[in-house]
């Protein structure tokens, strides 16, 4: 007898399933399903969104048939079902709804493409349809590089990643070691880590791998897209056949509301593969609070399996705790020391220097270098404070402690995320304005350096 747990690949949504129902009068109806959700060995759940005819048939005749396809072998499995109940709340409904919300948000269909109910079915029989296709022969040209990581590497990878996290001395090093280890041990070539801002309404990208220099500082609202949905729900999301599901959502949304497309504009685009086929996002939770979101993606529809999800959840718990611990330790050590202010530099013979013009827009706290956007919000206010102090008094040395105590920066009294904001600021300067440098001196202290003459301008409108 075939067990449902043996058909894990079939439930990933890589290939659509087919559901067949029949009315009381014997009139059949056949349609596609984006995904069948595995509930247990004896039950599955289907998402009810737009299947009006299917739903009507099930109320008249509770029996249905679903065909599932293994995306690797293309083996077809025939499953007989009996409708039991519809759930509109609870854990199962929330899990399925969160997944649909993420897809809907990425296509601008929030509020339209949504889960109406989770329809639970008892599994009566599972049959393997024989003779449809011959199994693939070994070495027939399949791309081994796109195959999921072997299960044999799991424990070793877990040990290596955990050991590297223990070596981290500060938050910046922690994030770098994490993404490097995920790439080296698991082959995750495209990863990003986002942290929440001060009010918890947006997340900003503070570290990434596989996207070059783009994306650092990119923001996403809580509840927007896959990452924002994970942040809002606190639940892991793994999506396969992403391209097909996005196309399905857009098509369904056009039937519901042809004018529902939304265009989102941000100063820094969120990094991502234009042809990604699978995504996995993990909420980093510490003491019931969101510490960040770790997201990975792949061009392979089978890039991530169930064990990848479990593996990253285990690592995620360690990372979240480490982030909280490092931020708390930094604040404690800063509180024990006084900010050291260096005297103005000695007067040197006048040398002609390049003039670097920077503009601060007071209405939205944006900093521009010439005509190019650099950074905004809290990191923008921090940078402007440093630049003003340097230009007005020649000051070069600063401390995290004084930044925390400066009311003009608008940092919250608790959980201000200052460490991560300074990491973001340093990386943006390295990428977009290398003439300005923030160099660490000791724990909680840094030095500002530049080889340019600075011209600072403040404006009230962008």
Instruction: Please indicate the count of domains.
Output: 3
Residue share in β-strands: 25-35%
By DSSP (H or I, 4+ residues per run), the number of helices equals: 10
The CATH architecture designation of the largest domain is 2-Layer Sandwich
Give an overview of the whole structure.
The chain is of the alpha+beta class. It has three domains: 4-129, Roll (Pnp Oxidase, Chain A); 154-332, Beta-Lactamase (2-Layer Sandwich), CATH 3.30.450.40; 355-459, Arc Repressor Mutant, subunit A (Orthogonal Bundle). Helices cover 32% and strands 28% of the residues. A seven-stranded antiparallel beta sheet has the order 2-1-5-6-7-4-3. Strands 10-9-8-13-12-11 form a six-stranded antiparallel beta sheet, sandwiched between helices. Strands 16-15-14-20 form a four-stranded mixed beta sheet, covered by helices on one side. The N and C termini lie far apart (68 Å).
